[in-house]
Amino acid sequence: MDLWWNARLEMILDKMDTYKPNRTINKxxxxxxxxxxxxxxxxxxxxxxxxxxxxxxxxxxxxxxxRTLIIGAGSTTLVDExxxxxxxxxxxxxxxxxxxxxxxxxxxxxxxxxxxxxxxKPSKLSSIEPxxxxxxxxxxxxxxxxxxxxxxxxxLKRKVKEGGFVLLAQFSLNGASKCSGLPLYRYSxxxxxxxxxxxxxxxxxxxxxxxxPSGDIRPYIYTLFKYxxxxx
Length: 232
Ligand SMILES: C[S@@+](CC[C@H](N)C(=O)[O-])C[C@H]1O[C@@H](n2cnc3c(N)ncnc32)[C@H](O)[C@@H]1O
Hints:
This is Methyltransferase domain-containing protein. The chain is α/β, with parallel strands linked by helices.
């Protein structure tokens, strides 16, 4: 009888989307399932047009040997673009092994390092060498718990070199409140600045309306910060 009730309850909660945020989700499984079951060009965050990111990258003045960490890379086409631009020091990290396997098979480039890790409980990422560039499109906004955000920003501050850059592109305050069935914590540039602290200076930012493969639109805030040296 208990089993029957549990199954009924599961079914009801599945139908009542509003209750989902309070339920425990196995995040790794969630993302693995998405990447295993959707063609990449149908993903709700698939990009044909990388111009907003490329526009900010051009402001860093970094050269193509910059040690570049792509956060929650998934199967992003940004990796293909950076390789085309001859970036030679790329690390792609994600919680989903399926996503990184898909990416690795597609780009087929031996210079890229792949790290499977959870940004909210970093283990391998904690021991990587410092980086010049941290790029996160559409990952940070999934961290709805304060302790998750604290862990994320602590890792970032430990890993970005002085003089390095942080590119954050997240759903803006007027953006959707969910993505791929998960609740979001949305951002303004002021909120990102406040989480990064005074040693990061805002180099550029803009609002950007992303069009999903379905044709729906999603407003983002794009920001580029520089980690100031202690000398300034
Ligand atoms: C909306 S997708 C964006 C993917 C990619 N950044 C892009 O722009 O195409 C969010 C990504 O974050 C990854 N992710 C979610 N939670 C994560 C976590 N706790 N640690 C590491 N990656 C995570 C997912 O697997 C997924 O690839």
